[in-house]
Amino acid sequence: MFALVCVCLPCRCPESPRPGTVRPCRMPCKRDCIVTPFSDWSQCSPTCDAAGNIQKTKQSRNRVILQLPANGGQDCPEVLEEEKDCEAPKVCPGYRWKSHKWRRCQLVPWNIREDSPGAQETCGPGLQTRAVSCRQLDGVQADIGECLKFANTMPPISQRCQLPCQDDCQLTNWSKFSSCTADCVGVRTRKRLLVGRSKKKDKCKNTQMYPLSETQYCPCDKYNAQPVGNWSDCILAGGDRECGQGYRYQAMVCYDQDNRLVETSRCNSHGYIEEACIIPCPSDCKLSEWSNWSRCSKSCGSGVKVRSKWLREKPYNGGRPCPKLDHINQVQHEKHSQDCKTLFSILNSYCQQCPTYRISIFLHNTVQNIPRCSEVYEVVPCISDCSQYVWVAEPWSVWKVSNLDLKENCGEGVQTRKVRCMLNTIDGPSESVEDYLCDPEDMPLGTRGSRLPCPEDCVLSDWSSWNRCSLPCSYNNSRKRTAYAIRSPGEGRQCPDTTEKEPCSLNLNCFHYFYNITDWSTCQLSANAVCGNGIKTRMLDCVRSDGKSVDLKFCKELSLEKKWQMNISCVVECPVNCQLSDWSAWSECSHTCGLDGRMWRSRGVVQGSQGDGRPCPSQLEQWKPCPVRPCYRWQYSPWSECRVEVGYTTHCLILSLTLVLS
């Protein structure tokens, strides 16, 4: 195999600059790992339990990587966390609670319990208290903080009691519990006695109402209590409250050392743990006061006017909603741009003869000054006098000649004048207003071009207004206008024609007229009313055959029939808040034993909400767990061998009660 190699000699390279053979580059620097110093050692937790036994605990410290290594830099250390044993005391001081004797029962007066003044009571429900102190195991008094850290739960320091009334059953206080007969499986009892006349009263001898003895299992550390299942609904104390602080419940189970379900009383538990909870109170929709009404959207005939409220606070937690507003009279939206778009469509649908640009200007002037984005608008019909706004033209200016004939001293010229829209009052035009309020079709010219008459020309006056076409409109009819000579022409010259005619053309210079009735407005109430009796109104317009609203006088001159009723009475439904019944009594447990038992209660809707009233809450049922009880069943052993007793053949069956774990 042969290879052909071509070598380019330097003398044959082009004369362009020789490419560079050296360029700068960047060599990455090494980056070592950076770590923080070790933190301080964590605090040691208490090393003694409630029984005074030493517990081993640990304390730790750590450090954090601030920068990872790169480009061959020094690696990070492997140890980022260290632990060591806490120093344990040689002897743990034991602590226990010491409960002192209950004090006398103190009456809680009825006027305090019911928050209402009443007579002074001498009997009834009350409270009694007792002192609780902290002791070391040898009986020496200790600081209460030590018991809070090392001892069991502090015993209660208050309880309900009853000061007996004259007709009440009177009993002695409970005796102390008897000594336990056996560890973990024994029971203990306590007793009390009827005293005085109560011994002879039949109702006092009812041991279910007034038990004279009480038995409970002996305390035992071999039993273990723990919660099971979900938390119940939040349940308020008292049947008339709808919100505020309540309690929710979770069932407790008790297991023995063999992890078998036993009665919760063995764990000294009443079967529940409870936790405070809050049902938030409803907050109603809050709106501002109404703004002032805007001007009527039309300066001639029937239109609409607008006022607004803005949202101060949205409803939450089932509060009274914001007003439900209909599409003609009122409208509610969240965004400002959407407000303008919706109002435009309302105005356009209600006032179909309004020029589009006039509605746009009206909206611009109405909505632009509203300060918030969340607003409620009310749009109601209105009617405007067609002569309340008029065009007023100032006198024409002097001629400005643009093409002068020096020989004749005349030529083409222009005249100008100011034209303004003004509010028309009894005394005549008074003040200037926005041009959109006046009819653009009636706007006089502000500029005119013509020929400046030469000295020998005939000079005519301004043309008069066109006379009205006779009805019905027809091309066979015509209208005319006239002028008259102000200066006679010179010798040999003539005045132009002083009369102009044009045919009457429908919707160009001749119009038919008819009445137009608007739709009914929504129910309009008095100034401060929110519901009740009101009035619906509708407006009567005089409309030209081209669709333009004009002054009612045009229809009145034709003696057109008006057969419509303009006002009717109406009623706006008043807001009614939802009303609920009281909660029912708690149902029986759904299971008599096991872990799945639940109790339920319910309430019904007595009066549903109406109008803008506060709606009914969604929760019409509540549940809470039942106390957990173990399930038992009889277990049969096999029959024993047959034995004969006094001539009879007998089989023996041994029965035993078996605990079934749920």
From TrEMBL:
SUPFAM superfamilies of this UniProt entry?
A: TSP-1 type 1 repeat
Which Pfam families does UniProt cross-reference here? TSP1_spondin (PF19028), TSP_1 (PF00090)
Enumerate the spans annotated as Spondin-like TSP1 domain: 33-92, 285-326, 578-631
- So which residues are the signal peptide here? none
Listed GO CC annotations: plasma membrane
**What keywords would UniProt list here?**
Disulfide bond, Glycoprotein, Signal
List where this protein forms a coiled coil.
Answer: none
Asked if the record carries the keyword Calcium, the reply is no
GO annotation terms (biological process)? actin cytoskeleton organization
From the Swiss-Prot or TrEMBL record, give the protein name.
Spondin-like TSP1 domain-containing protein
